[in-house]
User: Which sequence fits this backbone?
């Protein structure tokens, strides 16, 4: 087991032959006059995400019941949506194994990629995003950023212990190079554009 | 160590039947074409490649400072950081952490570094069960083979091969070759094991000095399962993965998966900045020859590699011979450069397993001069007399003309002429260029590799 000093020492020895180069200026490549929600929706489609504009949680719940009538266990990490499995009562992440539909509110959407950003704050138990067979996600349409550059410039983005950009459902092409959705994580992701309630924004 | 006979290995893959090489070639070329389409949609694509290259060069030439900053910040957030000089130390540290937690079974997501260190066999020897969670890696684990591609580990196997494998190992119907049902069968087989694992291990694609965060990119969500279920998470990270700032990720996430598979990004881009509540997180920062590579004038730029696999997908030699032919953790054009830094004797034949068409350098998202470095390795191997006498003689003649490779297209013409003026005995020698030998040398005489390549590309596009 090396000490940090020895370790750095061999790197410094390697560096003796290198000339330091400058750090470049990184533009954000933003485009003028772009409709963020339209671009986001276009890329959601590419990521096989179905999305809906809704004006209430009840409306979203009704859509999910129609889409996945067989789901028995619904576990929600957002107070707006009541499930039938209490996430606060979960002792171990593996207890979420029976979840058919996992629900949470995403913190951010990235138009360029059709991605959403979630953290341990939005998931409460991180495994909710991966053990659930299907996901329903709420997103405030005001929280869409243009691209990865603007996303990473959000102050405090990496403050959370865990944060993930999720682009649709889990996928693999490891068998015969054929795309299959639902590899290890969620089999589908449905997104609902729903404004954050005023009493929640202050949180 | 025994020298890898890449020519023999490639021949085995090519001549096993008509199906494997054709499928392999087609699937990889497909990925290359998707990469082109994805790149064409980004107006600033070339600028992003330049930025990525510049950020990497800057970081590598200040690596000690950024590493120190990374360690300080990760420790501040409660991550335990360990330092491993080589593979043996890496494995010993991993085992030490696992055994002190009385871990019996681990789940792991894909990590080329752990592969490079031979960690899985080491842990298994010590009685720890290791389950690969990435589907391709799992297929390779069950096949008792190393991954053949850094992004698509089982791409050299057909769905029929996999149906047969799963039938044997997990009891599926051998006649059902439908990828979706095979995937479901493995999902159902693996899930209970995920739940019971005592620890999870991942690699790291990027590590951010400014915040102490490491980033893992997967399509299956298996790294997130690996990290979110067991109470212990260990990540193995090579020192070259460091980036200065969070905003650098903007550049790299935009080019990584577009270069690899032609998708905008991987399905999951996961950021770990500290352990979750009630869990422990460790990082094993690993050198394993990287600081020595940093001192190599010709080869240090290979440390910029972000392991996207684009150079493999585009390589006409790789696409025909498969990754297993290289007999090493890293295959394809980038493997040819990295592998000899671990063992110049064992991998002395690899630099000759290339047509030097330069297509790898053209697609590399971080502008590594791959073809040039392969050429440089050839020179090293010739100088150190690591290659057979006949090959040395042949390349001595070619070498004079290849002495100053400015443009590979030009070099190629020269090489082509050289082949024409070499005595028959040498051009007919299969070891001159193993891949060309299988393509029959007379063909090569009529057209340069690049001409052949362009023609071949047209065929592929039809
Ligand atoms: S050398 Fe370049 S193209 Fe090849 S895997 Fe590395 S980054 Fe990708």
Assistant:
């Amino acid at each position: 087991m090396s000490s940090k000093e020895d370790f750095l020492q061999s790197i410094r020895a390697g560096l003796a032959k290198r000339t330091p180069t400058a750090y470049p200026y990184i533009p954000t490549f933003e485009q003028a006059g772009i409709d963020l929600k339209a671009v986001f929706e276009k890329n959601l489609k590419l990521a096989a995400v179905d999305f809906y504009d809704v004006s209430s949680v009840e409306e979203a719940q009704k859509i999910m019941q129609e889409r996945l009538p067989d789901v028995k266990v619904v576990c929600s990490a957002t107070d707006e949506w009541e499930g039938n499995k209490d996430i606060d009562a979960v002792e171990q992440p593996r207890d979420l194994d029976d979840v058919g539909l996992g629900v949470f509110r995403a913190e951010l959407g990235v138009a360029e990629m059709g991605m959403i950003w979630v953290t341990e704050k939005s998931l409460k138990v991180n495994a909710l995003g991966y053990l659930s067979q299907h996901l329903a996600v709420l997103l405030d349409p005001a929280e869409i950023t243009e691209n990865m550059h603007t996303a990473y410039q959000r102050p405090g983005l990496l403050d959370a212990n865990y944060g993930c950009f999720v682009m649709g459902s889990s996928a693999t092409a490891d068998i015969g190079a054929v795309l299959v959705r639902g590899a290890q994580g969620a089999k589908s992701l449905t997104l609902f554009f729903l404004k954050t309630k005023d009493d929640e924004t202050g949180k | 160590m025994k020298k890898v006979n890449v020519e023999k290995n490639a021949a085995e893959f090519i001549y096993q039947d008509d199906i494997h090489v054709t499928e392999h070639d087609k699937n990889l070329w497909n990925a290359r074409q998707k990469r082109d389409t994805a790149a064409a949609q980004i107006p600033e694509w070339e600028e992003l490649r330049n930025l990525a290259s510049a950020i990497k060069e800057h970081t590598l030439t200040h690596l000690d400072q950024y590493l120190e900053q990374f360690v300080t910040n990760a420790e501040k957030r409660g991550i335990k950081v360990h330092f491993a000089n080589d593979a043996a130390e890496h494995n010993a540290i991993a085992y030490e952490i696992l055994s002190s937690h009385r871990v019996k079974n681990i789940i792991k997501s894909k990590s080329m570094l752990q592969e490079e260190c031979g960690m899985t066999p080491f842990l298994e020897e010590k009685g720890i069960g290791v389950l690969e969670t990435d589907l391709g890696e799992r297929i390779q684990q069950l096949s008792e083979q190393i991954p053949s591609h850094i992004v698509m580990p089982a791409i050299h196997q057909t769905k029929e091969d996999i149906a047969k494998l799963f039938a044997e190992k997990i009891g599926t119907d051998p006649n059902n070759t439908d990828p979706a049902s095979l995937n479901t069968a493995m999902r159902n087989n693996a899930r209970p094991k995920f739940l019971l694992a005592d620890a999870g291990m991942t690699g790291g694609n990027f590590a951010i000095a400014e915040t102490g965060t490491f980033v893992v990119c997967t399509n299956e969500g298996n790294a997130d399962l690996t990290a979110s279920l067991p109470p212990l998470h260990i990540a193995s990270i090579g020192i070259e993965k460091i980036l200065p700032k969070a905003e650098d990720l903007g550049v790299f996430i935009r080019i990584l998966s577009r270069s690899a598979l032609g998708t905008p990004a991987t399905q999951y881009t996961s950021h770990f900045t500290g352990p979750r509540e009630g869990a422990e997180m460790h990082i094993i920062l690993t050198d394993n020859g990287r600081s020595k590579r940093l001192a190599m004038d010709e080869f240090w730029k290979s440390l910029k590699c972000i392991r996207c696999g684009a150079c493999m997908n585009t390589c006409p030699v790789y696409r025909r011979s498969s990754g297993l032919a290289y007999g090493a953790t890293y295959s394809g054009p980038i493997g040819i450069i990295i592998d000899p830094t671990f063992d110049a004797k064992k991998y002395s034949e690899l630099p000759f397993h290339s047509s030097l068409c330069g297509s790898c350098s053209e697609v590399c998202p971080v502008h590594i001069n791959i073809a040039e470095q392969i050429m440089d390795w050839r020179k090293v191997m010739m100088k150190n007399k690591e290659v057979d006498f006949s090959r040395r003689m042949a390349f001595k003649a070619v070498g004079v003309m290849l002495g100053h490779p400015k443009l590979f297209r030009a070099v190629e013409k020269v090489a082509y002429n050289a082949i024409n003026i070499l005595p028959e005995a040498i051009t007919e020698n299969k070891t001159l260029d193993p891949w060309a030998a299988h393509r029959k040398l007379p063909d090569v005489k009529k057209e340069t590799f690049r001409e052949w390549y362009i023609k071949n590309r047209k065929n592929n596009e039809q």
Summary: The pocket of iron/sulfur cluster is lined by residues B 305-311, 334, 363-366, 368, 370 (CB under 6 Å). Helices of chain A lie at 4-15, 36-46, 57-67, 120-123, 128-131, 148-152, 198-201. DSSP finds seven helices and twelve strands in chain A. The longest strand of chain A covers residues 134-139.
